[in-house]
Amino acid sequence: MPETQLPATVLTRTLTGPNRRIYYPQLAGLANQQAETQINRILYQTVQGLIRDQQNVQAPGPTQMQGSYEIKNNQRGIFSVTLSNYAYTPRMAHGMSFLGSVTANVNDGTIYTLRSLFKPGSRYVEVISANIKEQIRRRNIPTLQEFTAISPEQDFYLADKALVIFFQLYAITPYYVGFPMFPISVYDLEPIANERGPLSILAAD
């Protein structure tokens, strides 16, 4: 991969329906058309997955739904984005939000899981969990119960020089906290990072 690579072109698409408007990203103009198709398919599937999550928790009625996205990283061939979905059905106590994410290599279409960011056999769950425990303590984050460990495929995104682990509402914190986010410097993860993965790519000078 060249040292300098222009950001990928991102187009905003819209899903509309009764009481529904959802904005989501699609990549365009990638040199590798197969990679573009693969990434765009996963982005769309993630949006649909968030809609299904809402349908599973919303009460019967005219649900109002809106969705948006935030680009977290679009450099060095690594694209990372969060996709949010908020819905409210009248008579419910409050609305509900879900957050999804996609991190991909725009050059070859690789879709990264958390596990794939690290060397095989590395104890990344323990390393990340210990970091999060310390952040919870230092930042005085209220939790529903004592935090123990992340899932091996915990939600995440990449933002410049950081891996950001996040949890859904109610997963580890009260609703009012929102989505708890835990940024970890890519430099702190270098010893266990996959040498050809995005953490190493973003950590390079």
Mean pLDDT: 96
Largest β-sheet summary: 5 strands, mixed
Low-confidence stretches: none
N-to-C CA distance? 14 Å
Description:
With 205 residues, the protein is of the alpha+beta class. The protein is built from 4 helices and 8 strands. The chain has helices spanning 33-57, 124-139, 186-189, 198-203, and strands at 9-17, 20-28, 64-75, 78-88, 96-105, 156-159, 162-166, 181-185. The protein has a 5-stranded mixed beta sheet. A hairpin with a 2-residue loop joins β1 (9-17) and β2. The model has no long low-confidence stretch (mean pLDDT 96).
List keywords for this structure.
205 residues, alpha+beta, 5-stranded mixed β-sheet
Give a topology summary:
Elements: E1 9-17, E2 20-28, H1 33-57, E3 64-75, E4 78-88, E5 96-105, H2 124-139, E6 156-159, E7 162-166, E8 181-185, H3 186-189, H4 198-203
Parallel strand pairs: 2-3
Antiparallel strand pairs: 1-2, 3-4, 4-5, 6-7, 7-8
What does this entry show, briefly?
The chain has 205 residues and is an alpha+beta fold.
